[in-house]
Design brief:
nine-stranded mixed beta sheet; 29 helices
Length: about 650
């Protein structure tokens, strides 16, 4: 940002001096941001204001119901205002500023009014009026000239972004909910667009960019600027959706102030109120909230899932307390078909989507679908403590449905966790940042990695690994071992029988327990033989008979193998084990090599075999650190003991 932009932002922010005491620092943005929008709209509409008022009066006299298209055309913009008021006129009636300001806002076209409503600015008008500040604040903004001849749309965008940044940084407790650090956005956009830079300079290109959790719109802005920096004549259409009313208002305001189309920023939940249902996009990027549950829209999402791949969530449903992979599926559904040019997308995740969920779970099935359809291009691990509201490690997932032939069935993993510098002052949980040098280096490494056919052995590529998509898959097999039992009636087993649920409800319980106690000391290694000894218990209901056998059966490695009616061994649930087998290996070869030498009686229950996918990123980049030599540890212990002795001697003098 140039010095001029900083000076203008500083001047606008100086209004905060009036708010001090009546507002907390974290609340300044609630006044400054909407008033900045109002003042800019006021200045932009000034040249056509008289024409709009005259046209409005004419249409009203004619009884025209739908004036909106005509008034937009008269204003030459996507918005207009039919109120006689302006910022200057507001100052002419000091006693009725609140009334006139509300009337002025009510005169805006529906889209602009909606933005101001989402800010909740009417509440601030009342609050400022009660504090005796409304006239002073409005007067301050009336002195700021934001006319397009003085401040271009591009410059206004920079000014507004600077105000958003300041608002976010002093609101540490909520900043991360709607504001992604600018350097993180820059790296994300670089990784998303760098492989396409040759295409971006094509004359007359049109590109659509989408963010389904757009917050204040920072990612959309950065993507738009990146493309237009490579090709000033490119047309970049940005689309977004945001659930939080205030951040939606900020994003839509930003689009209005830059001269863009604010109607392409939708309000509502992207899952249940898809604001761009029929659209498909060239590029998509998002930083959805981590670990946010989707219970509020559970019925809608499950109904959408039931439609299979005709809906957006056909691959699977993650656990209810983390909707991250729902956002990813939603974005994939917005990809253009490969024959129409395809799409690329990037999304920020924490570590959970990499490995949460066993084989057959919703998360695993989503990963399986993504990898088997060859959509995952790469994953980049970022340093921890990069974000305002969390210190955990994060990852960029980059997907595309138009891989070049050499890249098909390959996935790049880039370990960027060591690329950071410490911030001079922490902002919430953000203690680290990426420099321009880090961003350039990580971008270079990623783009170079896309040209690597196989996993590099060169030590200089220690931060880069290339895998086949099938490398992340596995067969989850269930290994069973036979159930071996001996049978006995003892004080302990009789007590177990007495507490069995079926026995507690049995009408002849006392007689049964008395008969069982008379058999204490009875033992047998053979089920049939033991059954003969239980004849004295009499004819029992099926549930009670089952409880008797469960109580008197004792697991014993040397006991008799139990079988079903067909003579097949029954499995022992306590000895059941699971193993992960590579997807291209025969499970019985694995059994013979890894299991049978140790437990010859084991077998695989094929009915329980499942296919799973996970991406254990940290394991792939783990570097073994040998422990220190015992002599060095011993020397350190002796040194510490000597220091303790010195300290104790000083205390006891």
């Amino acid at each position: 940002m140039s010095t001029k932009h900083h000076e203008l932002a500083n001047f606008i922010w100086s209004v905060a001096d009036l708010l001090r005491g009546d507002y907390k620092q974290s609340e300044y943005g609630r006044v400054i941001l909407p008033l900045t929008v109002l003042r800019r709209l006021d200045c932009v509409l000034e040249p056509t204001k008289d024409a709009v008022l005259a046209r409005h009066a004419q249409l009203k006299q004619l009884g025209v119901q739908n004036m909106d298209p005509v008034l937009r055309k008269t204003a030459g913009l996507s918005f207009y205002n039919t109120s006689e008021m302006s910022f200057r006129k507001l100052l002419g009636d000091q006693d009725h500023v609140a009334l006139n300001l509300r009337a002025y806002i009510g005169g805006f076209s529906p889209g602009a009014v909606d933005v101001l409503d989402k800010y909740g600015f009417d509440t601030q008008i009342s609050r400022l009026a009660e504090a005796g500040l409304l006239y002073q604040v409005v007067a301050k903004f009336a002195d700021i000239d934001l006319h397009p001849d003085v401040v271009s749309n591009h410059q206004m965008g920079y000014v507004f972004e600077e105000l958003i940044r300041r608002f976010s940084e002093i609101s540490n407790e909520t900043a991360g909910e709607h504001f992604t650090p600018r350097e993180v956005i820059k790296l994300m956009v670089n990784l998303l667009l760098a492989p396409d830079e040759d295409d971006l300079v094509t004359p007359g290109i049109v590109r659509k960019v989408y963010d389904p959790a757009c917050g204040t719109g920072g990612m959309l802005t950065e993507a738009q600027e990146h493309i237009q920096a490579h090709n000033p004549h490119a047309t970049v259409e940005v689309y977004g959706q945001e659930l939080n009313g205030e951040t939606y208002a900020i994003c839509r305001s930003d689009m209005m102030l830059k001269g863009g189309d604010p109607t392409k920023i939708a309000f509502g939940n992207s899952f249940s109120q898809d604001g761009h249902e029929a659209e498909r996009f060239d590029y998509m990027l998002a930083n959805p909230p981590f670990g946010v549950e989707w219970k509020k829209v559970e019925a809608f999402i499950k109904a959408e899932h039931a439609r299979g791949h005709a809906g957006r969530f056909g691959a699977g449903l993650p656990r209810i307390n983390d909707g991250s992979l729902l956002f990813l599926q939603h974005m994939i559904s917005k990809m253009k078909r490969p024959e129409d040019g395809g799409s690329r997308l990037a999304i920020v995740f924490n570590g959970s989507p990499l490995f949460t969920g066993a084989a057959g779970s919703g998360e695993s099935e989503i990963r399986r679908w993504i990898l088997e359809n060859d959509l995952l291009e790469g994953i980049v691990a970022l340093p921890d403590q990069l974000f305002y509201n969390t210190g955990i490690s994060t990852y960029f997932w980059i997907l595309t449905n138009r891989k070049e032939s050499a890249r098909r069935r390959k996935v790049v993993l880039l370990d960027g966790r060591d690329y950071w510098t410490k911030m001079r002052k922490s902002l919430g949980d953000k203690r680290k940042m990426l420099t321009d040098e880090h961003i350039d280096e990580l971008t270079r490494l990623y783009v170079e990695a896309l040209s690597i056919a196989d996993d590099p052995e060169d030590p200089q590529h220690a931060k880069v690994k290339v895998f086949k998509t099938t490398d992340f898959g596995y067969q989850r097999i269930t290994v069973e071992r036979p159930l071996r039992l001996r049978f006995e009636v003892s004080e302990e087993t009789a007590a177990l029988l007495a507490e069995a649920r079926a026995v507690l409800k049995y009408a002849e319980r006392e007689s049964l327990l008395a008969a069982a106690k008379s058999l204490i000391g009875t033992k047998s290694a053979n089920r049939a033989d033991f059954a003969m000894k239980l004849v004295g218990l009499g004819k029992l209901p099926a549930t009670v008979e089952k409880a008797v056998w469960e109580a008197f059966s004792v697991s014993d490695p040397e006991g008799e193998v139990q079988t079903d009616r067909k003579g097949n061994p029954l499995p022992d649930p306590d000895l059941r084990d699971n193993e992960n087998v590579p997807p291209d290996e025969d499970i019985y070869d694995f059994l013979r090599r890894e299991v049978l030498p140790h437990v010859p009686e084991a077998w695989i229950d094929e009915t329980k075999t499942k296919i799973g996918y996970d991406i254990p990123f940290s394991r792939y980049f783990y570097v073994y650190q040998p422990p220190r030599a015992l002599a060095a540890i011993d020397a350190e212990i002796r040194m510490l003991e000597a220091q303790i002795q010195v300290l104790l001697s000083e205390v006891t003098r």
